[in-house]
Design goal:
about 375 residues; alpha+beta; Aminopeptidase; Alpha-Beta Plaits; 2 domains; 8-stranded mixed β-sheet; 4-stranded antiparallel β-sheet; 10 helices; 20 strands
Length: about 375
């Protein structure tokens, strides 16, 4: 059974709406591409310190806020990622219109990051004693080629102690409860190239890269679960009158079935080997590897999902849709830790320049995520709840 927060706490949470919006806007003004989150991480650390909290930045650029972990053998982890998918190193345009706040990255994951920060401060200000140790994390490297760097580090540090792992990521409407694994490559291809007229007939790296892509795209994915592949970026060549000596691409496979991902990797290796045997120099480099689902206790996972669903109904009026995804939860899932990723806002346009959040939805989102966190305190702080 999951209890409802008492009216005093709900009123306090609702009163934080304006401050929460200001924090989101301030965070949006600090660019944080994957692997370049330092400025946003420093802001988060300083914000925690100014609010009387113990916070430090680890060697993966995570801002870590442990709360009463020393006396606890078990730990619950709550995190939200600082990085965005956009490469911009200068602040991106922001506007408010019809109750919406528009800015690239505003939802994924800036709004959730601000929600985590405000909730962590609530816990510390009230000096609440958790049933287990709590670790709040503003983590690095969730997007793209960040390769889940921050989540990996947290699992290295707390893995043996972690009882549950919740990432504030996505919207109120969906919850990720199963891993989609992936492998990502940078593939470089080289030929002799030459002048487009004088050396006509020499092998063109761009043409052979196109051929390689076409070969990879002829493959039928395994049936069962979901398996995908994608070329996300291609580069190469020198000029319009040069036979390209070099070309490269970013390529990935994804699957929610480990055996299917392994099969696609084996097929990729065989294809690359065939092109190398033709005298084409193909050099693949693995630049990202996200594990598939590990051996997670089904009962413990179901308990976490039921709690999230029940609390969502209580505070938003609707249970989220549960589905698989590639998130920070991939790492704890791979070592058997019950995990879920869910956000605290309604919005759309993630990973586009038109991304927006509904500002009013943050009220329900804050109440929901606060209740989710405070459920880890309920045993020793029953006064937080009524019913």
């Amino acid at each position: 059974m999951h209890y409802k927060l008492n009216e005093k706490i709900l009123a306090e949470a609702e009163g934080l709406h304006g401050e929460l919006l200001l924090l989101i806007k301030e965070l949006c003004g600090i660019p944080a591409p994957s692997n370049h989150e330092e400025k946003r991480a420093a802001f988060c650390r300083d914000w925690f310190l100014k609010n009387g909290m113990d916070a430090h930045i680890d060697d993966a650029c995570n801002v870590v806020v442990p709360w009463k972990c020393e006396e606890n053998a078990e730990t619950d982890v709550f995190m939200a990622h600082t990085d965005t998918v956009f490469p911009d190193l200068s602040p991106m345009p922001m506007k408010e219109e019809n109750g919406r706040l528009y800015c690239p990255g505003v939802g994924d994951d800036t709004a959730n990051l601000a929600l985590l920060m405000v909730i962590a401060r609530f816990v510390v200000r009230h000096n609440l004693t958790p049933d287990r140790g709590i670790v709040f994390v503003c983590n690095s490297g969730e997007e793209g080629l960040g390769n889940l760097r921050g989540s990996r580090k947290i699992c290295e540090t707390y893995g043996a102690k972690m009882r549950s792992f919740v990432s504030f990521d996505g919207t109120l409407e969906g919850c990720y409860n199963y891993s989609v694994g992936s492998v990502r490559y940078n593939v470089q291809l080289k030929t002799e190239g030459g002048h487009s007229f004088t050396n006509f007939g020499n092998r063109n790296a761009i043409a052979y890269l196109a051929s390689l892509i076409n070969t990879l795209y002829q493959v039928k994915v395994p049936q069962g679960g979901k398996t995908t592949f994608n070329v996300g970026k291609i580069e190469g060549g020198t000029s319009v009158n040069t036979i390209a000596q070099q070309a490269e691409m970013l390529f990935e496979y994804r699957s929610d079935v480990r055996e299917h991902l392994d099969a696609m990797i084996a097929l990729f290796d065989a294809t690359v080997s065939a092109y190398n045997h033709m005298g084409i120099e193909v050099r693949p480099e693995v630049i990202g590897l996200r594990p598939c689902m590990g051996d997670v206790d089904k009962e413990a996972q179901a308990t976490l999902e039921k709690k999230i669903s029940a609390l969502a109904v209580t505070y938003t009026g609707k249970a989220p849709d549960f589905h698989s995804g590639s998130t920070d939860c991939n790492i704890p899932f791979s070592i058997g830790v019950p995990s879920c990723a869910i956000g605290g806002y309604i919005g759309d346009g993630a990973h586009t320049r038109e991304e927006w959040i509904d500002m009013e939805s943050l009220k329900k989102g804050l109440a929901f995520l606060l209740a989710l966190v405070l459920d880890s305190f309920r045993g020793k702080n029953p006064e937080l709840f009524c019913g």
